[in-house]
Amino acid sequence: MTWHQNFTIPRKPGLQFFSFSTFLGALIIPRAHNQKTHPFLQQYQTLSKNPHTSLSPFLSPTAMPKASTVAKPADSRLKRKGAGTGTKQSKKASKDPNRPKRPPSAFFVFMSEFRETFKKENPNNKSVAVVGKAGGKEWKSLSTADKAPYVERAEKLKEEYEKTLRAYNIGLAEGKTPSEEEGSDKSKSEVNDDDEDDDEDDE
DNA sequence: TAGATGATTGTTAAC
DNA sequence: GTTAACAATCATCTA
């Protein structure tokens, strides 16, 4: 599988999909027809001005995102966050804001620390994408033993989440939210909460 | 001004 | 079993 086999342009309403060869052709055909810009390129130029679309495949084959990322074009994120229709979307749309947030995975626990470190080493960086990439790379370089503390913390958070979720479900059954019952506020970062808990434990 | 975007991995939940 | 959604982060941009 080469990168261009996975080549698609993020779908936008009213925008067609184009193959890689179409893209190359678009570069050549206008010259052959003495045109300034092929219609496809016009669409590409429009698209490229829209920051809500990912054009990294155009710009850097080496920076080709993994298949799962490519398979989720920009508008899928729009759908995901939006209040549209459909199974998963309706799930999101009907989601109770009081429902406990999912606990961070070991990777996310690691990332919370890594962001701090990265920020100190790269104070000028403002891109979450750069931090994400660097964090992912760093995470993969860690051994199982290195990951163990993060896994342990993630498991601890997961247990807390399951407790909270149980309380939430009980509250739902009784017609009230856990936050009303316990006054719990899980809107804060669970990772940070854990850090605070650890601090409290240490004291 | 609210909300989407980017980029990552692991987990959850819906099918 | 498969796969989309989502968990955190925040400067930047659009509608």
UniProtKB/TrEMBL annotation:
SMART domains noted in UniProt: HMG
Q: Which residues bind DNA?
A: 100-169
Keywords of this entry: DNA-binding, Nucleus
The family database entries (CDD domains) matched by this protein are listed as: HMG-box_AtHMGB1-like (cd22005)
Region called Disordered, residue ranges: 52-105, 170-203
Cellular compartment(s): Nucleus
Give the record's GO biological process terms.
chromatin organization
Where is the major localization of this protein? nucleus
Q: Name one GO cellular component term.
A: nucleus
User: One GO molecular-function annotation for this sequence?
Assistant: DNA binding
Q: Is Nucleus included in the keywords of this UniProt record?
A: yes
Q: Where is the HMG box domain?
A: 100-169
List all Acidic residues biased stretches.
Answer: 192-203
InterPro entries for this protein: HMG_box_dom (IPR009071), HMG_box_dom_sf (IPR036910), HMGB_plant (IPR031061)
Which protein family is it in? Belongs to the HMGB family.
Q: What is this protein called?
A: HMG1/2-like protein isoform X2
